[in-house]
Amino acid sequence: MFSAFQSLEFSGLVLTGAGLIGINQPVICNGANLAYRRKAYDRVKGFTEHIHISSGEDELLMQSIVRETSYKIKFCWNKDSLVSTSPPAALKEFFQQRKRWASKTLYYPDKLLRFRLFLIFIFYLGIPVQFLLIFFSSKLFLLSFIITLAAKLILEYSIIKTGKEFLFPRKILKHFLAAELIQIPYILISALAGISGKFEWKGRKLKR
Q1: 27 phi-psi bin (left φ>0, alpha ψ -120 to 50, beta other)
Q2: Which residue in 17, 79, 121, 202 has its CB near the most CB atoms, within 10 A?
Q3: Closest by Cα among 186, 190, 156, 187 to 173
Q4: Over the stretch 78-93, which tens digit does the pLDDT of each residue have?
């Protein structure tokens, strides 16, 4: 189930990235499966400006190409182009990986993008807060809690389902609800932990 959760969550990131590329607002990409023209790379001076960062150089390179050149970003839907990577086997390794991922967002040059990510964090934070307010404040928060959670489930399922058979086997979808609930505290903890900029990865202690 731990592996299935990671497959669903990572597929969600890939598909979200594909959707953003589809509306010409590319934000995220995956360095394990990425190609770019040498001219575009040279135009933005490659990884020079991001070489000191231990995570996110792939996304920051793409964002620089979008911002500083006329090159277009495309997502490849050909199944033969897929690259397989092994998920973290242990919870500690998984947590350190997500801390590393979260730490890079502070380096996004687009202030509006950082603000949008902050709003997403507030949305996730609002779910457990509303749940607690049901018991400690007013029963009216039950309605807002249900609406917020339903919005998350419906919208994210609409994204995830497009990846079945393409990014993961259909049978993994049976873990969707459990994965959605687990994702809420993990997103909040990872985001806050990522701010510290300190994490371990593949036996190395790193800083943002």
Answers
A1: alpha
A2: 17
A3: 156
A4: 989 999 888 888 888 8
